[in-house]
Amino acid sequence: MIITINTDADSSTRSELLSLLSQLSGGRPPTCTKIDGREVICLEARQYDAQAEHILRQHRAVARITPITTPYKLVSRAFKAEQSSVIVGEERGITPLVIGGANASPVIMAGPCAVENRNQLLSTARAVKAAGAQILRGGAFKPRTSPYQFQGLGVEGLELLAEAREQTGLPVITEVMEPDMVETVARYADILQIGSRNMQNFPLLLAAGRNSLQRPVMLKRGLASTIEEWLLAAEYIVAAGNPHVILCERGIRSFDPQTRNLLDLSCVPLLHELTHLPIIVDPSHATGRRELVPTMSRAAIAAGAEGLILEVHPEPDSALCDGRQSITPDQLQGIIREARLLAQMMGGQTALTCVA
Ligand code: PEP
Ligand code: MN
Asked: Which of 26, 76, 338, 348 sits most deeply, having the most CB atoms within 10 A of its CB?
């Protein structure tokens, strides 16, 4: 269940409720989370019985009890029926952008896999903007499979991303890999990305909830994670204090090496039933082949995704990272045109309206 605390409760009634909840949890103090200005506390089913529920329902400090049967709670549709939207770039003086929500059109994030140098980043930033992208992507800290591969430019890459934002007005998304770097990355980035390999890095999730300066966090699905594990990872961030979470489907491990991963598009309508969080699809990492990216981009929008994240490089074949799946700015322009047309044809039939 989720207990919403009465905003009018005086401090002694509130403390009484907290000590009651602490008793129910075997002496562990309950974790309070602020969501939309209201304090909430989540309890697992094993923490209370019918009698305890009755007492809680009568308590003066309790405004509302929402029964939730799933292990993830704050991110569930049962807790919040309306689709959440995430606002990007609000405090930077650039035009804020809305991801998700009832009528938002699909948002396109595009840019290189890795920030390689100033010229590569700035020219790609200008090109993706001209093609119609609304957010610039670029990895400064790269989680590479081999220690001998290009690991990213680190803080220098973050500075280049900030310069690209300055020049183009595009908000930027970049990956954070370590809990201690969350605040630094949040100072430069407009959206923090938690990569597939770190989806269950719990200290990182907690840091993204606590220290990300309330920047939106895009949580990519783990290489072989179930939807429940993914939603529980999102729950960590929200419960730790940052409700601005976006999910990103980027393909899961499968048996066939023909594609890099298997794009699980059925997760998009399914997630729209289970959660109120917006969902972005990454056809680049999902397929690993640039020739499949346009078709799977269309398919993702048709499935109801709130947006796409695409790897774009001016010279894909000489990219330091993920060139095989990178498209050119010209190809991006075609994908964006099709995505917008498709979204118009669907007439806002994404997200909530897809739920039967
Ligand atoms: C990326 O987006 O650059 C990336 C490394 O993706 P993933 O975590 O999905 O592999
Ligand atoms: Mn990549």
From this structure: 76
Closest by alpha carbon to 221, among 266, 181, 163, 183?
266
Structure confidence by residue, pLDDT tens digits, 286-318: 999 999 999 999 999 999 999 999 999 999 999
Closest ligand by atom to 251 CA: 1
Residue 250 Cβ contacting ligand 1 at under 6 Å:
yes
**CB–CB of 281/249 below 8 Å?**
yes
Contact 321, 149 (CB under 8 A): yes
- C-alpha 277: how far from chain center: 8
Write the pLDDT tens digit of every residue in 96-130: 999 998 777 899 999 999 999 999 999 999 999 99
- Which residues have CB less than 5 Å away from ligand 2 (the ion)? 113, 322
Tokens of 22: 């602490």
Which tokens sit at 39? 């304090």
Instruction: Tell me which H or E stretch contains 33.
Output: strand 32-35
> Is 288 close to ligand 1, i.e. is its CB under 6 Å away?
no
pTM: 0.95
Integer Cα distance of 19 and 3 in angstroms = 14
